[in-house]
Amino acid sequence: MNRSQLVEAVASASGLRTYDADQALAAALEAIAAAVARGESVTLAGFGTFERRSRAARTGRNPRTGASMEIPASLAPAFKPAAGFRQRVAEA
Question: Model-level pTM?
Answer without folding.
Answer: 0.83
